[in-house]
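batch job 7 of whatever, protein = Hexosyltransferase
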Amino acid sequence: AVAAAMRLGAVLSALRPALPLLLGLSLGCSLSLLRASWSHGAAEERCLAPGPPPPPARGAPPDAAEGRPGPGHEDFRPRIVPYYRDPNKPYKKVLRTRYIQTELGFHERLFVAVLTSKATLNTLAVAVNKTVAHHFPRLLYFTGLRSAKVPHGMVLVAHGDERPIWLMYETMNYIHQHFGSDYDWFYIMQDDTYAQAEQVKALVTHLSINQDVYLGRAEEFIGGDEQARYCHGGFGYLLSRSLLLKLHPHLDSCRNEILSVRPDEWLGRCIIDFLGITCVSQLQGQHYRTYELAKNTEPEKEEEEDFQAALAVHPVSDMTLMYRLHKQFSRIQLDRVYQEIQDLQMQIRNLTALTPAGEAGVTWPVGINAPFLPKSRFEVISWDYFTEQHLFSCPDGSPKCELSGASKADVSEIIESAVEQLNRLYQPLLRFSKRQLLNGYRRFDPTRGMEYTLDLLLEAGTQKGHSHVLAKRVSLVRPLSKVEIIPMPYVTEATRVQLVLPLTVQDLDFVANFLDMFAMNTLDTHDNALLTLLFIYHPYDAQRVGQVDVFAGVKAMVGELEKRYAEVKIPWISVKTEVPSQVKLMDIVSKKHPVDTLFFLASVWTEINMEFLNRCRMNTISNWQVFFPVHFQEFNPALVYRGEQTASSNTDFLRDGHFDRHSFAEACFYNSDYMTARTKLAADILDRDEVLEGMEVFDVFLHYSGLHLFRAVEPGLVQKYTLRSCNPRLSEELYHRCVLSNLEGLASRSHLAMALFEQEQANST
């Protein structure tokens, strides 16, 4: 018995680890058997009722009776569209939209139309444009004038008929035709209306776009139905896209059948008669609040709650009143924001006290990200020292430069703000005034903004008239504000790029590699790019061109390319000069091409590839932006590898080299932009052509174009190491730039130090 018990204990101990698994399997099998029996029982009950299925409930769609969603739920049902291609039709590449927003059918949110007239176009309409127009994503002005002179900065649509009803009819047609498929909401207002743009934008974000909305200040028709209302045009009104689409087919009938003097009444009657929708002032829990101004109103003294909460104010009699209203509402909005910031800061303090860190976890300023904490000495953000007159960290690398421009304005503003904050903190006991800035430090922290530390020499005065001079250190932060997306014109990657390659006698050894890379990456791939060669002859070589042409070998290579690619023509232009000024050379090329040509000014060491050409197309925008890429320059292999390795591996891409910020040889720009800037330059220098020898194309755009200059590193432009020849006849700045480019392109500091160390060791032995 004892032996049996021992054997049983051994078996149980062996099975003990598997007991949870056995119990789980047993429980799972039991539940599955129970579920199967219930399902079988339910099926038998359904089978016991012969005949047709019972009818659906009242109001339910037919599909709902079978357990499928009805037609109202079609938008929420995923549908898989199978891919099918007819084998009998030739294959065509599918053209995808550039933005996913277009492909998914998203719309912009708000379009604003302002109705103006001949009498108010240059007064009230201009005031609207200067106060609230830039707060709306899209705003157009509509007038009945035939040939109205458009004020600067306004987009005006002239219908040619000043009758109010006709103007409203044409405006609604125009909005439907040009913007009906692009926007969800349409806000119509007059130029004698002041609208709080931010409040209007917030309103549409809280409304559903699936309803027919006619929202504004509801008014009764004179002698009409008591239930029907129209939206008063003086206070603006909001139309949804669905309502506009339904209304458009009836506009012609409304124009012929409805008689009215006021355009807002005419539109309201049209919507009511044909769509059965009346104007409302409240919808989906949102109120359209308005305020009617009395005569001789002073906005600064208006303290009524209705005034401060109004989305639209009417009537605005003149420009001055419009500006005063804008100033007052901006002050009201600013006070609300400051109060909200204080409330949030108080909540942050209260919640932080409950955390494990306690009150020590509160960062300064409250609500702003904590300062960046470097993980190594390479991540330490350095401070820049400044005084009221000088800056000791200059963009050009010099140790000291005069404080001017935006930097001077920044320092002055931050000092004034520091003194103001001190007075706000210590008044009425003390009153501070600045005597001198002793020391100033600033740095840009990408996690929070610009940080300042100021040592101020202050004079503190008391209420009794006593004064004392003291030094005080203050810290300030200019936090990063809300990130905004800058609107940019639309560009495509289908633009043809015209490459321009200047060549001198010193460049002949590198032309073959350039042409090979051009043929492989553009001609073989059928990229939309052309090449023009610019042969720069020295006067001595130009005289002997009949006997010995220094560019004969290059011309032979071009001939071979044209034979290999029958559809390709590579023209060349010959120039004779001792000083190959980039601007003078570009003047010659510019005259031989159309104004809409996209130029890529290349160097002979550039290796052309499709990736960079596409970035050249995307980063260059006509009448908006030019692109000056910073190429990657490989170091001297004799110093970097020292005979150990002759080429970089794939893992060392963009490693043994640097981005050459001293070179401006590569540039992408449109011919029209260059011609405009060049015309301004010619008017400035008159006939002093020697000035052009000290300028590059970059300088022309920087000083005479007014366009955005996009200067960025370009990993797609990789150049092999070459010791470039610097022409001493160029300007001192250009020659200095060329020498610096050669020196910094030798090797990194570590490579140079190793080379010097090895040289010293060799000399010592």
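notes: The mean pLDDT is 84.
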